[in-house]
Amino acid sequence: MHDAVLVIIDVQNDFCSGGALAVPDGDAVVPIVNHLICRFHRVVFTQDWHPQRHISFASSHPNTPAFSRIATSYGEQTLWPDHCVEGTTGAAFHPGLNVPLDATVVRKGLTLTCDSYSAFFENDRRTPVGLDAVLQTHHARAIVLAGLATDYCVLHTALDARALGYDVTVIESACRGIDVAGSVADAWKRMEHAGVRRG
Ligand code: VGL
Ligand code: ZN
């Protein structure tokens, strides 16, 4: 039996206070996540990492405010303020996060024309992002998830992991959500229905 792999989702400056898409109380996860990191042999970090003019940016479309939705070739897409632009300070990990020098980093959202909430598949539900390959390399069967945001990237990574057959635990105290119209409560319902453990 192999140890569970800890997967830390998007603890980046733009999702923390003062960031372009700040998650309420997002910084609060930093010490909690650091504590978790000490307890695992293997830790994978994800980073939301977009090119300029990314399809998920409201600024890439005419007359569309942030947090509105548009139809795309892969389905509905929520539009966000410009965030986590590749190479910027906003895309960097929170400075207080203990990222071990040998940590694996999976970046997602690099495709100009398709967003990616999950670290397994892009929002087209088809294109692999890379987390499954990393976990297979380590013969992992179980993952423990924490980070930002509960109702987007944590949710979709957890659901895809369950669909791929992983044992999944989400550490509630180590996550925070954007919470648009009850989306955090909705996310927990969906995760529980999919057999995600609430740790
Ligand atoms: C995220 C919205 C847009 C997340 C990323 O990390 O949850 N949310 N891009
Ligand atoms: Zn994003």
The radius of gyration over CA amounts to: 16 Å
Strand line-up in the sheet with most strands: 5-2-1-6-7-8
> How much of the polypeptide forms β-strand, as a percent range?
15-25%
Query: What is the overall pLDDT average?
Result: 97
The name of the CATH topology is: Rossmann fold
> CATH class, anyone?
Alpha Beta
Bound small molecules, by name, code or SMILES, are: pyrazine-2-carboxylic acid, zinc ion
Straight-line N-to-C gap: 20 Å
The level of helicity is 10-25%
What is the CATH architecture annotation?
3-Layer(aba) Sandwich
Order of H and E elements: EHEEEEHEHEHE
**The CATH fourth-level homologous superfamily:** Isochorismatase-like
Written overview of the protein:
- This protein has 199 residues and is α/β, with parallel strands linked by helices.
- The protein has one domain: 3-Layer(aba) Sandwich (Rossmann fold), CATH 3.40.50.
- 21% of the residues lie in helices and 22% in strands.
- It is built from 4 helices and 8 strands.
- The chain has helices spanning 29-38, 131-137, 150-163, 183-193; strands at 5-9, 43-48, 69-72, 75-78, 104-108, 142-148, 167-176, 197-198.
- The strands form 2 sheets. The protein has a 6-stranded parallel beta sheet with strand order 5-2-1-6-7-8.
- A hairpin with a 2-residue loop joins β3 (69-72) and β4.
- α3 (150-163) packs parallel to α4 (183-193).
- The longest helix is centred in the C-terminal third of the chain and has 14 residues, at 150-163.
- Pyrazine-2-carboxylic acid binds at residues 10, 15, 48, 80, 148-149, 152-153.
